Prior knowledge:
The protein is an alpha/beta fold.
Amino acid sequence: xxxxxxxxxxxxxxxxxxxxxxxxxxxxxxxxxxxxxxxxxxxxxxxxxxxxxxxxxxxxxxxxxxxxxxxxxxxxxxxxxxxxxxxxxxxxxxxxxxxxxxxxxxxxxxxxxxxxxxxxxxxxxxxxxxxxxxxxxxxxxxxxxxxxxxxxxxxxxxxxxxxxxxxxxxxxxxxxxxxxxx
Length: 182
C-alpha cells in the first residue's frame, strides 16, 4: 500500500513546456518627406502593422528628427539605443521610384535595399475637359437662345394675327350693328 501513491504519482501527466511568446522585430520607419502627414510613411507603417512579421515602432517627431531628416545622408542610430528597434526603414522618392533601405538598428549596417517603381500619373486632363465642357455649354446656350427666339417670333406672329382678326371681327360687328340700326 505504500507503493500505490508513488505508482499513481508516476502516472500523472506533466504539463508540456510552453513555447516562449515571440515578439516580432520592431521597425522604425523614417520620414519620407517633410509634408505634414507624410502619406508614404503612413502607408508603409500601416502595411507593416497589418502583417504579422514585423511591428512598426512609432516614435515622436523630435526623436525622428534626431535620427534622420529627409535630404540628410547619414542616419544617427544613437537615439535608437533607448528603444526596442531592431530595424530602420528609410524610403526616398526618386523621379520614377521609391528607393527603400533597411538597416540593422543595433549595428547601423545596411541589410537590404531596393527600388520600387511607381506607376506613371497621367498628365492633367483638367484643362482639356474644362475646354470641352465650355465649348459644349456654349453650343447648348446658343441653341437654347435660338430656340427661344424662334418660339418668341412664333408667339408674336400669332398674337399679331389674333389682334388683326379681332379688330377685323370687331370692325365687321361694329359695321353690321351700324347698318342694322339704320
